[in-house]
Design brief:
membrane, transmembrane helix, transmembrane, mainly alpha, 0% strand
Amino acid sequence: MLKTPFPGKPLCWWDLIPVLGFIVCALAFYPGIMTPDSLDQLAQANTQSFNDWHPPMMAWLWSGLNLVFPAASGFLFFDLFLLWFGLVCVRRSVEHRYAPFVYLLGFLPFVINLSGVIWKDVATAYALLWATIMMLQPPSRSRLALFSVFIFVAIGVRYNSLFSCLPLIVGYFWQSFARCQVSYKWARVLALSCAFFIAQLTCLNLFNYHFLNTTKGTPQIVIMVDDLTYMSTQMGHSLVPGVDLETVTRSSQVAVSDNIFRYGQGLDYEAVKASWKAVVREHPWMYLQFRGKVFLRFLGFSLAPPFQLHEPSYGYWLDHSYQSNQTNEIRHMLGLYVNSLAQLVPVFFTGALWLAVAAFTFCLSVASRLPYRTVTLSLSLSAGINLMSYVLVANAPFFRYYYWSIVAGSLAVLLLLIGFAQQRRQLAGNAVSQL
């Protein structure tokens, strides 16, 4: 066994598994699969000119990483390090012979499939994984500092993850007080959590708009235009300022999402905002019905979807990522692995399943007294909140939006199983000692 800097924690042969996973993913995905969103952020990283249509922190991090890694591959290695070394840290934080099974998480088809795609959703999931790792360790000032950094990165890289962070923040401070005999423990935890959360948002605002001098954009216009497009087709006249009904109808027949990009012209944000507010105020039920249908479709249900949305999302795998001329044999094999399992058990690639997993692990954590209970409670709540945060802003069942819920749900299940085995062994040991 090899000795490491971790006190009393020798490395074993199975700790080579994540090394293998890292190498396989690096070879398969190098320099990282990039979509138009990724390329836009890479352009910002290269020019050092930031706008908040996409969170600028990712572009800023990427610019620094590219000073070390070639061919814009810095973020790929950053993500893969967070995933695979993170699993090593989880394994070393869990006291049980079954702990190495945690490494399987990285090879699950619904985890490995996006591990090489340079998306903010992926980086956020891995940052929150590391925040969870800090919860598996005894509290200390250094771990609080690291926890703060990973929460800051998660929120900074994807803004709506601030809702997903809340259970982890509360869980972290609850664990910090777990062995303290103090009065009003819950009040103290909530007060600290609120102060921590507000400090994070304040620092992020200062970082984005004062340190990076980020230009403010209006990304919310995308969802507003989608809402107006649907309601235009229902009411028989265009509600989208400057766009005629024929164009609106033609766009609506293509997809429920991203209508603004098919109009081929710049729309005035203030005019769109005024139109959206007026029609939602006048027809709230129509708006909520539409949002409800889109959210059901987001979760993977195809019951009465709006706008003939019968085609599956590309989100669980990017076809061009392993079928294009730029692919390699390892990526091709990974693509076959992911797609074969997706066809056999497509339910594993739906938001509905992972919302159910979050609910199940939450109930099991509440009902049991297993080890890692606070962590599994926090993970299940975070996973569920992540999915529910899309109720009014979901546009399509893009798998990447589920990604943190999948990582969190999978880890919660593994920790519950390990905790159950650990508890059984402890009970068996107590029974033997009483004989």
